[in-house]
Design brief:
- The complex is a heterodimer.
- Chain A has a single domain, classed as Rossmann fold, CATH 3.40.50.
- Chain A contains ten helices and ten strands.
- The mean pLDDT of chain A is 93.
- By secondary structure, chain A is of the alpha/beta class.
- Chain A starts with a strand and ends with a helix.
- In chain A, helix 3 packs parallel to helix 6.
- Chain A has a six-stranded mixed β-sheet with strand order 6-7-8-3-9-10, sandwiched between helices. Chain A has a four-stranded antiparallel β-sheet with strand order 2-1-4-5, with helices on one face.
- Helix content of chain A is 40%, strand content 23%.
- Chain B is mainly alpha-helical.
- Chain B has one domain.
- Helices cover 72% and strands 1% of the residues of chain B.
- In chain B, strands 1-2 form a two-stranded antiparallel sheet.
- The longest helix of chain B is centred in the first third of the chain and has 27 residues.
- The radius of gyration of chain B is 19 Å and the shape is globular.
- The model of chain B has no long low-confidence stretch (mean pLDDT 88).
- The interface between A and B is large, with 48 and 33 residues.
- The complex binds adenosine-5'-diphosphate and magnesium ion.
């Protein structure tokens, strides 16, 4: 679905992403790994419009999209989470979830007033959906809490739930299991697999190799901003360049 | 009795003024330090039209519309700026508006001000007594409260709060932060215009000196003291602060005290704010959402 061709981004002197090409066509869950500072988050920032590439192309279903604004990227169906989770701290857990669906009638002033029955219907539907997801994530009892009061792990779960609520074409997860306890890691993995079964497509940056191998069909490896390998989990685990990048 | 009516009218007008600022500061996180400019635009436009024998309805609508358009025009450049710079831009804008009122003598009579602004008349109803004027301002305040309440409790208001909390996170969920900030700013400006119109026709004499930074600080204080991002906060804040401010004026103090009254009042305001920030930083009214810690 997403094709990235020869994308490059430098910050001052450092090439954070250097001439990378990846094709995610046909993949349900793709993985992105690499040592710290290898440019993984920068690649996500490029795909979701938070920064503009110096050169190269990104196409989504055949349309060129590189360099557009973040909200355009989101509305075209690319929704991401952040490495350090970014929930809305002074919104309740439920409101964090309800914010996510795209194209809500109640979010535009004219339709808020002129199409109130539709606004009301959408809210009810979204609320049901959100309850179901929060239940699956095991944080339904926290729904009226300010999201800022949740533990770090719960915030990461909420961020995943919020991304699912948006029903995007692809969810990009930036280190979803980093810094959270093993029980929540299992909840996270279960959730991703359940959503995959419902047809949701993912692109996941992940450090935990067990998680990567369990989830991903195909893995891309970055080192110093360059793609040094790609393949199935088995191929990647035995690839000498990958082993060197991680050990050296 | 007249004193009570007078107080109630001023509280109602400042409630509208504070509600309009709260949608910017409390809900959207826009620290507008020039909010008084839109109050001034509403007051002057309506006063000038009324002095040219326009009907009150026309003057009212024009006052609100001009304040809204003013918001749009200043918002276009200012809302591109981040945080502090936005505050400085709005502060500058308010000074420019005041300078214009001061120096455009041909239109505004400059520092002399505009005396003799008529009390309103709508469809042959005269609002020329204090009780009648209280009714008018209360009606306007209730309407403002309902409209802003409806907006802020709606999905639209949820987006505003999200942008306040984390603009980037809102953008990557598909919300256009600039467009929403613009809408909040124009709505806030228009309602500030409404407050200005009601003020002008109540006081019946306005001059550029009424629209200084002090007014902006007062209304900011009302919002912060009452509770940012809550519906009742600005109303409660307006009642408390206006009552305090006006009652000091009516204390029978010896004449030699009058010189220190202004500075004393400012000092007490400052002290109030410090005490509040220490003991109840979220204001008198709290935002809805549970605080109990219940972790995994
Ligand atoms: N906004 C930025 N400004 C300057 N340098 C940056 C910025 N974002 C990332 N970098 C640099 O780009 C490189 C890649 O960073 P990043 O993409 O965060 O790596 P990873 O996510 O793989 O750990 C690092 O050297 C980092 O310091
Ligand atoms: Mg990273």
């Amino acid at each position: 679905m997403i094709e990235i061709k020869n994308i490059t981004k430098s910050f001052g002197g450092t090439r954070a992403v250097s001439d990378c090409s990846l094709s995610l066509a046909g993949l349900k869950i793709a993985g992105l790994i690499g040592p710290n500072g290898s440019g993984k988050t920068t690649l996500f920032n490029l795909i979701t419009g938070l920064i503009r590439p110096d050169s190269g192309e990104i196409t989504l279903e055949g349309r060129r999209i590189e360099g557009r604004m973040p909200h355009h990227m989101a509305n075209m169906g690319l929704i991401r989470t952040f490495q350090l989770s970014r929930v809305f701290p002074r919104l309740t857990v439920m409101d964090n979830m309800l914010l996510a669906p795209r194209g809500q009638a109640g979010e535009r002033l004219w339709s808020l007033f002129l199409r109130f029955p539709r606004v009301h219907r959408e809210e009810t539907e979204h609320r049901e959906k959100a309850c179901e997801l929060l239940e699956m994530l095991g944080i339904i009892h926290l729904r009226d809490q300010f999201a800022g009061n949740l533990s770090y792990g719960q915030q990461k779960l909420l961020e995943l739930g919020r991304a699912v609520m948006a029903q995007p074409k692809m969810i990009l997860l930036d280190e979803p299991t980093a810094g959270i306890n093993p029980r929540l890691i299992q909840t996270m993995i279960d959730m991703i697999l359940k959503m995959k079964a419902r047809g949701q497509i993912f692109f996941i940056i992940e450090h935990n190799m067990d998680v990567v191998v369990e989830l991903c069909e195909r893995i891309f490896v970055l080192d110093h901003g360059e793609k040094i390998a790609e393949g199935s989990p088995r191929e990647i685990q035995t690839d000498p360049r990958v082993i060197e990048a991680y050990l050296g | 009795m007249d004193l009570v009516l007078h107080l109630a009218i001023v509280v109602a007008i400042y409630s509208i003024f504070a509600l309009s600022l709260n949608i910017e500061v409390g809900y959207t996180g826009l620290f507008n330090f020039g909010h008084v400019a839109f109050f001034a635009i509403g007051a002057y436009v309506s006063a000038l039209l009324s002095l040219q024998d326009a009907t009150f309805s026309l003057a009212l609508i024009a006052g609100i519309a001009c304040a809204g358009v003013g918001g749009l025009l200043i918002g276009l450049p200012a809302l591109k700026l981040q945080g502090d710079y936005f505050g400085i831009a709005t502060l500058g804008f308010a000074e420019i508006v005041r300078m214009l009122l001061q120096n455009q003598v041909a239109w505004t009579k400059g520092p002399m001000g505009l005396p003799g602004i008529p009390r309103p008349e709508i469809f042959s109803w005269h609002f020329d007594t204090l009780p009648a004027y209280l009714l008018l301002t209360l009606g306007a305040a209730v309407l403002t409260f309902l409209v802003i309440g409806f907006l802020t409790l709606s999905p639209f208001g949820r987006v505003l709060k999200a942008i306040r909390d984390d603009e980037t996170a809102a953008a990557v969920l598909g919300k256009n932060p600039f467009a929403y900030k613009m809408e909040a700013f124009v709505i806030g400006s228009a309602f500030a215009g409404l407050a200005g119109v009601l003020w002008a026709h109540f006081i019946t004499f306005i001059s550029p000196g009424d629209f200084t930074l002090t007014e902006t600080i007062l209304v900011l204080l009302i919002v912060v003291l009452g509770g940012k991002g809550t519906l009742w906060g600005p109303v409660v804040g307006a009642a408390v602060l206006i009552f305090f401010q006006e009652s000091v004026r009516f204390l029978r103090l010896p004449p030699e005290w009058s010189g220190i009254l202004g500075p004393l009042q400012q000092m007490i305001f400052g002290l109030l704010l410090v005490i509040l920030m220490i003991f109840r930083p979220e204001g008198l009214i709290r935002e809805k959402g549970k605080e109990t810690i219940d972790r995994d």
